Structure formats: structure tokens, C-alpha cells
Amino acid sequence: MSTSMLSVRGLGMQFGGLKALSDVTMEVATGEFVGVIGPNGAGKTTFFHAISGVHVPTSGTVRIRGQEMQGNSPDAFCRAGVARTFQTPRIFGDMTVLENVRFAFMFGNRGGDAALVDKVIEETHLSGLRGETAGELPPARQRQLEIAMALATAPRLLLLDEVAAGLTEGEVEDVARLIRRLRDTYGLTVVWIEHAVRTLMKTVDRVAVLNFGQLLADGTPAQIAADPKVISAYLGDEVDDADKADKVDEVSQ
């Protein structure tokens, strides 16, 4: 029986009179690959902020491998094995690729082997760019670098926030394959927020849908693609009616 890597119970986040999250409950098993989708403003990034220490939830609990974590700082979450990326890559633009990954390793190191730096650079296909200045890399490479930096902290739970944003269709597919391979190689648990719905739903094991700060649906990609509530709230805006049957077929395979 799989153990729980992430357990969120009754999670709420309020900013003044705005309820960004309301009573969100979710379990993510160790080794699971979960996608999170939803319209703009649905609370997806706020959810990540709450489960990575960026924001303290107004209500509810966040447990990482059974340890209650809400209220802790981001570095405490990192020490607990959580790493994340952001919608806009947070890299050090004036440093080289190698220096960026080394910095991440030092920040998250829990007594790990420094050989991890070279390993993640190779695994993320950045070996030929080790000496390149990070700020001069094209968007797709900067995304790869941020993923490499996250991996260098030796995480158990990897949170990916729209790592395909701004990429071409081909680059999005490449990123999806990379994430899946890294999940398998490093034995990671992955939660991936993404607007590239078609690619995400062909890649993940399970999909959670947020809408107006609430968990609208949670199930297999095929179940989500066929859910009338999800189609009405979100997927109807992403694909036209003629494409919906194809989407269900794709994610059912």
C-alpha cells in the first residue's frame, strides 16, 4: 500500500475579503504524478504557495510524509524534501548554468553527494551549456535549468508551476517527456500545474481540477476529460466541441 507523500486537509487561504482557497483536501501518494489544472485565478499557484511555505494557510493542515508543515518557512519545506519551480524561472541570470546548479545544491544539501550536481546537469540535457550565462539562455533552456536546480536539492516531492509556459508545442512535449523520465529516474513524487492541458493529461497519473479556489474534481485523466463539471468550468474553454471526443480518446489510451 502506498504511503502519503503530501496530505492536505481543509486548506484555506484568505487575503482580506478574497478567498483564494477554500476547504481544499487532497492526498498525493509517494511516487504519484498528479496534474493540477483550472482557469486563471482558480487558486493553483496559491495552492503551491501554501504547500511549499511561501504563504501560511489561513486554515487547514499540510503534511509532508506525515509531518505537519503549515506555518514553516520555505527552507524548512526544502529540508523536508520539497522543491518547486515558479511560473517565471527563478534563476541567477548573471551566473553560469553550473554555478546555478551548484548554488541550489548548497542550499538544499542534506549531506548529499556533490556528484549530484553533474548528474542533474546531464539528466536535464544541459551538459553542453555548463559554462553559459543563465540569463542568455532561451526560455526552454531556462526552464530546464530551473528543473535542474530543483533536482539539485535532492527533493522527494517536486512541485512544477507551468514549466511549459511560453514554449512551443514541440518544446512542451519535450518538457513533459523530461519530467516523466526524471520522476522515474529519481523516484520522485510530482505535482504539476499546467495550462497545456492536452500534454499534461497524456503524461500524468491523476488530475485535480481547481475552480474558484475549490477542488472541483479529482480523478484519472479519462475521468476528468469526460466530467461535465470540468468541461463546463474549464475544458470547454480549452478545446472546441469537435475536439472533446478526441481528448477523451487520447487520455483513455
TrEMBL record:
Residues 6-237 form the ABC transporter domain. The keyword Cell membrane applies. InterPro entries: AAA+_ATPase (IPR003593), ABC_AA/LPS_Transport (IPR051120), ABC_transporter-like_ATP-bd (IPR003439), BCA_ABC_TP_C (IPR032823), P-loop_NTPase (IPR027417). PROSITE patterns: ABC_TRANSPORTER_2 (PS50893). Keywords: ATP-binding, Cell membrane, Membrane, Nucleotide-binding, Transport. SMART domains: AAA. Transmembrane segments: none annotated. Pfam families: ABC_tran, BCA_ABC_TP_C. It comes from the Bacteria. One of its GO terms (molecular function) is ATP binding. This is ABC transporter ATP-binding protein. It comes from Noviherbaspirillum album.
